[in-house]
Design brief:
Main location: nucleus
Subcellular location: Nucleus
Number of strands: 37
GO molecular function, one term: structural constituent of nuclear pore
Strand order of the largest sheet: 27-28-29-30-1-33-32-31
Organism: Hyaloscypha bicolor E
Radius of gyration: 43 Å
Strand content: 15-25%
Number of helices: 40
Structural class: alpha+beta
Largest sheet: 8 strands, mixed
Helix content: 25-40%
Distance between the termini: 138 Å
Keywords: Nucleus, Transport
Length: 1183
């Protein structure tokens, strides 16, 4: 008779080992044994922060990323870091060690560094052991290499926090030693205590090593022991066949211990070590006496000598015995015999008078055969037992099954009692772990009319956080590109990972013509999708290898099981109430059958419908939840029914299947059923928020995140199933002959907010962001020393999801009394996903978080979740402004004006912004309309969007009270005038800028602004408009400014013609003599320059000088004849010194100018006729 299927009570939560922080891997090359200190320090390569190179093929990927052995060690004496993951990589040459704590002390930094220790020779399989010291906060790692050297690594907590802590001191914490019995081959290494080791040799002997307390491992005392007496050795020698078994390149005696329980068990003050040898025997060694205390068959089945040859254990088996002892009187020993179908034995070991141990089978009348997951061939790779501290008769057994790269985890709770009761428990009380459903997510598909591009869909799918590691994608891309040719492979090496993926996939598909200018887009889309699917299958094959189980460890704090994989770890948490129903179709928990029937019926109903119809329903629901409803719930359901075309998309077969799944009618669909279903997706009403004493470490955040992703996906699917079912029920059933008295609209109204919440959490858990890592050590770290001393190193970044970035400071997994970590993790996950979550962060706060970290693109994408209150609208405006959408931002700022401007100091303090708003900005909110608009002015001014500065500055001034002379009001008014004036200047709205001048009450500010306006108008070729402005009360200031500009000009023929502008300014204001004065000054400068004689007219007599004469004569001609004169300062002649160099002032009349003008014309005419003056003559002597 087949065993019943186990009940799925636990959930797999697989976590990858990809570091969240850049530069978190430290590579250290360990020195060879025997190297002198000086030579080792000079030859030793410096430890360095490094990134693991991209594996170019599957072999390199397996060598670099897939462990051949791995486990987690939990320290018992010190708490931070407490849990360490060790892995053997690179064909045994590299030992990777990192902390995998779930929580950490609030006053210590996260230990997120990974040490990659490169040994001189490969590590011997099964010869790695770890221990911690009660007296020192260190982790000791003991490793035996194939060169038979014992390495002792003494690692301090700082090694996993600060890269600089491992620099230049490898010899201080890495010691090597070689045994005198170097002719023996070690098979297993185990720690008996902090300073005691036990080595099982190939010949069946044992080598016990001990050192002084706190020793560094450079000196060990060794004692050799034989595996048994001469009679036992004789038994092994005379058995039929060989007494050795081949393992790798070496032969092992059958008396060799292949599994050793650690640490040593102390019974009646004596230390004993329990082990299982290859000849299927349980051996217990008395360490104090140095002899065997017990030697018996693992199944208590003593056989004849000739039959023992049949009982040989595979030497690769290393997890066959576990020992537990909470008292000093006895010890519980649990063994597993891997022979045949496999069988457990529970032994009670007690001391006797002869110094031996009496080992008694606790269940002699029962055959304890564990239940295999399926009828296929499975191997029990590891097991663990958890004892009930309150009841010694209660046992919990965890069994890890393995089939190639697939694994399953089973659990059995049983009590010692009658034979039949125990037999029933072992046959039908097993519980199992449900595998991740995230890996069963439907692949992206193309639908008619879908606006989303297939490439974008595939990128989002493949790069979904936690689905594939970066190393897996890189290797898959390398293999895929190499299959396409060398040119494609070269293109793979430039650009970001998403860009390279798109480039390689796109290079395999070309857009073809159908006819004429028409392109075959449909074929192009289909071909692109095909290539993405090929690439995905390649990634899937690589990823499967990462899931091979290595070992099983139960965390003593919280009793959570951890399965260590080839490239990852799996936390085993409790299934939620809904998951227990979902994963146990056919054997749901008692009392939930009324929920299970509509749950599974709706799920099967959705599976029977077309993908195109489901896609349309999803799109319609997303549109519904992000809009303010304008219809009643029944009307919304009817509109949803019509828009999605339920009547044509759902056939009679699908409808019949639905009715059949419900039991033949709809009577089981009640308000009570849905109330219970919604309670399963929400937290209990009496939920007490868990106090956060210890913040989560990196793997704690990963654990919560992965659980949230898994739970969100399940809850979203359930909501979608039930919403489609309810719409059909409302429209086609409730109003038909089979109508039931059930208010579907009420449940619809409850499910829609739940669905919206799940969409928000899904977005947070699937969107990644890079944040700068807080600096926790001095600038002498390795990574910083490698950079130029004159250039600051780039900030270290950590990549995490928005959910972690926003909420991780609120998460806590602190245990209360009698709680297990497995149940607490599930409780926190459900609380995060719940509609009334205690871990709620308003959408506006999330947008502020994104804006604070310069991710305006994500803030805009998140806007669909934004609330409709004034603060949310204001933050959306900030997002649009940061995304360079000023027009939309302006509209949103105006929309939020009333709520954000109404004076309310209390409300101002309620605005949570994740540190995005500074104190100045916060003080301007809810402080009045002028203050609010002044704040908006400052935002646009900072972005140099001056047209919007003008709009909002006017609004701010418009709402200011007239006559308000309070200092704050005066300062605000002055600031708005200044910003408005500056914006008008920047946008060339000079008339507006001029109108602001009269409003300045500060004379210094006013005159400064006049200078700015005049200068800007002149430089912008607005001089004619400048002369038209009246400048009432400021004309003298403008004249003075222009005069100063004229004085500063070196060459009047280039640049802004300030002389001409001042001439026009004075002419406009009838200051003809002033205009003549500045014109004369320009004339003199032209005469001194070499460009004044250039011919510019057609008659050959017009030059810049003659034109200036005409302007000058015209200005003086407008003055009465008696006043037609000006004072002129003659510029000094070139080369003049002493008294001759002093400038002379003289009166210049209109007649003088006319005469000089005529002389200039004569001079030009003479030059035109090739008549030149002799040098040295005062007058023009003509040749």
């Amino acid at each position: 008779m087949e065993s019943p299927s186990p009940f799925y009570a636990y959930k797999e939560t697989r976590l990858d080992l990809e570091p969240a922080t850049q530069g978190s891997t430290v590579a250290i090359r360990l020195p060879p044994h025997g190297a002198s200190t000086i030579l080792s320090r000079t030859a030793q390569k410096r430890s360095q922060v490094t990134e693991i190179p991209i594996a170019e093929d599957e072999v390199a990927f397996r060598r670099s990323h897939l462990a051949t052995a791995a486990s987690i060690y939990h320290r018992s004496h010190y708490k931070s870091p407490r849990s360490f993951l060790w892995r053997v990589l690179e064909d045994g040459k590299v030992l990777s060690v990192r902390a995998v704590d779930v929580s950490r002390p609030s006053n210590s930094a996260d230990a997120n560094l990974t040490l990659r220790l490169n040994f001189p020779s490969p590590i011997t399989p099964g010869c790695i052991a770890l221990s911690d010291s009660k007296d020192h906060d260190i982790l000791s790692i003991f490793v035996i290499t194939e060169s038979k050297h014992l390495y002792t690594l003494t690692l301090r907590p700082d090694f996993f926090r600060k890269p600089s802590s491992t620099e230049d001191n490898v010899d201080d914490w890495c010691k090597s030693w070689v045994s005198h019995a170097s002719f023996k081959l070690p098979h297993r290494l185990a720690t008996l205590g902090a300073d005691d080791l036990l080595i099982s040799a190939h010949d069946g002997s044992l080598l016990k090593l001990d050192r002084n307390s706190g020793g560094d491992g450079s000196v060990w005392r060794e004692s050799h022991h034989s595996a048994g007496s001469w009679t036992q050795n004789l038994r092994s020698m005379i058995v039929r066949g060989s007494n050795t078994v081949l393992y790798g390149k070496h032969s092992l005696e059958l008396s060799s211990a292949t599994s050793i329980a650690t640490p040593a068990a102390i019974i009646d003050g004596v230390s004993y070590v329990f082990m299982v040898s290859l000849d299927h025997r349980l051996r217990i060694w008395n360490l104090a006496a140095g002899r065997m205390a017990y030697n018996g068959d693992m199944l208590n089945q003593e056989t004849e000598l000739h039959e023992e040859a049949k009982k040989v254990i595979d030497p690769s088996q290393s997890q066959l015995v576990k020992v537990f002892g909470d008292n000093d009187e006895s010890a519980l020993c649990v063994t597993f015999s891997p022979l045949g179908t496999g069988q457990f034995k529970f032994w009670n070991a007690t001391p006797n008078e002869a110094g031996n141990l009496e080992v008694v089978d606790l269940f002699p009348d029962n055959t304890l055969i564990p239940q295999t997951p399926t009828s296929e061939i499975w191997t029990l790779a590891d097991f663990s037992v958890v004892l009930d501290r309150s009841n010694a008769n209660n046992f919990t057994l965890w069994a890890l099954w393995k089939n190639n790269v697939t694994y399953r985890l089973h659990k059995l709770n049983f009590q010692s009692g009658s034979t039949s009761r125990l037999r029933d428990a072992w046959e039908g009380s097993w519980e199992a772990m449900a595998t991740e459903t995230l890996r069963e997510t439907p692949l992206p598909a193309a639908f008619p009319g879908d606006s989303a591009d297939m490439t974008d869909k595939w990128l989002d799918f493949i790069l979904f956080p936690g689905r594939f590691t970066g190393a897996t994608i890189e290797t898959g891309l390398a293999i895929y590109a190499r299959g396409l040719g060398s040119a494609k492979e070269a293109a793979r090496r430039s650009g970001s990972l998403p860009e390279r993926m798109c480039a390689i996939i796109a290079s395999t598909v070309s857009l073809q013509h159908i006819s004429g200018d028409n392109m075959n887009y449909e074929e192009f889309r289909t071909a692109t999708d095909t290539q993405w699917r090929r690439f995905y299958r390649l990634l899937l094959e690589l990823d499967k290898q990462r899931g091979e189980a290595m070992s099983l460890v139960i965390d003593p704090q919280g009793e959570m099981p951890w399965v260590i994989l080839a490239d990852g770890i799996t936390a085993i948490r409790d299934c939620s109430g809904l998951e227990k129903i979902w994963h146990n179709n056919g054997m749901v928990p008692a009392g939930t059958q009324h929920i299970a029937r509509p749950l599974f019926a709706a799920a099967s109903f959705r599976d029977s419908l077309s993908d195109h119809f489901i896609h349309g329903c999803k799109a319609m629901l997303l549109e519904e939840i992000f809009q303010e409803p304008s219809l009643t719930d029944p009307a919304r359901m009817r509109a949803f029914y019509d828009k999605c075309d339920f009547s044509n998309q759902i056939g009679d077969d699908e409808y019949s299947q639905l009715v059949s799944g419900l039991g033949g009618d709809f009577k089981g669909v009640t308000q009570h059923v849905y109330q219970a279903m919604l309670e399963l997706m929400n937290t209990a009403e009496d939920f007490d928020k868990r106090p956060q004493v210890l913040p989560l470490a990196e793997f704690g955040n990963k654990l919560v995140l992965k659980g949230v992703q898994e739970t969100t996906e399940l809850h979203r699917n359930v909501c979608l199933d039930q919403l489609i079912f309810l719409v059909l029920l409302e429209v086609e059933v409730n109003h038909g002959e089979e109508g039931i008295q059930f208010e579907t609209a009420a449940v619809f109204g409850q499910l829609m907010p739940m669905f919206a919440r799940l969409e928000l959490v899904n977005w947070l858990a699937s969107t990644q962001i890079s944040l700068p890592l807080k600096k926790v050590e001095r600038s002498n770290s390795i990574s910083e020393k490698a950079t130029s001393p004159t250039r600051k190193p780039p900030p270290r970044l950590e990549t995490l999801t928005v959910l972690e970035g926003v909420l991780r400071h609120l998460f806590g997994l602190d245990l209360r009394r009698d709680e297990t970590l497995s149940s607490v993790v599930t409780e926190v996950i459900i609380q995060i996903c719940a509609l009334d979550s205690e871990y709620e962060a308003p959408p506006a706060v999330i947008q502020c978080f994104l804006l604070k970290h310069d991710r305006a693109d994500l803030a805009i994408e998140f806007s669909r979740f934004a609330g409709r209150d004034a603060f949310s609208t204001y933050i959306q405006g900030r997002a649009c402004l940061a995304a360079n959408e000023p027009l939309t931002a302006s509209m949103l700022f105006k929309k939020a004006a009333f709520g954000m401007a109404y004076p309310n100091p209390k409300k101002r303090t309620d605005h949570r912004s994740a540190g995005y708003l500074d104190e100045t900005e916060r003080n301007l909110l809810n402080a009045g309309v002028p203050e609010y608009y002044a704040h908006i002015v400052a935002l646009f001014d900072r972005e140099k969007m001056y047209s919007f500065v003008i709009d909002f500055a006017r609004l701010s001034l418009q709402f200011m009270k007239v006559g308000n002379q309070e200092p704050q009001a005066i300062l605000l008014r002055t600031e708005m005038h200044s910003r408005l004036f500056n914006a008008a200047i920047q946008t060339a709205r000079f008339e507006l800028a001029y109108s602001i001048l009269a409003l300045f009450t500060d004379n210094a500010l006013q005159h400064s602004s006049v200078r700015t306006l005049v200068t800007k108008m002149c430089e912008s070729s607005y001089a004619s408009q400048l002369t038209e402005l009246p400048f009432i009360g400021l004309q003298d200031a403008v004249d003075s400014i222009l005069a100063q500009k004229c004085q500063s000009i070196v060459d009047v023929t280039v640049g802004v013609p300030y002389h001409k502008i001042l001439y026009a300014w004075r002419i406009k204001r009838s200051d003809f003599r002033g205009a003549a004065t500045i014109s004369l000054e320009r004339l003199q400068r032209l005469q001194q320059s070499g460009d004044g004689d250039k011919i510019i007219g057609e008659d050959g007599l017009e030059t810049p000088v003659t034109k200036q004469y005409i302007a000058l004569i015209n200005a003086l001609s407008c003055v009465e004849p008696k006043q037609a004169w000006i004072l002129s300062e003659e510029p000094p002649r070139k080369g003049a010194t002493g008294k001759n160099s002093q400038q002379k002032r003289k009166v210049v009349t209109l007649d003088d100018l006319r005469r000089a003008y005529q002389e200039e014309l004569d001079r030009i005419a003479a030059i035109q006729n090739n008549q030149f003056a002799f040098a040295g003559g005062d007058e023009m002597d003509v040749l």
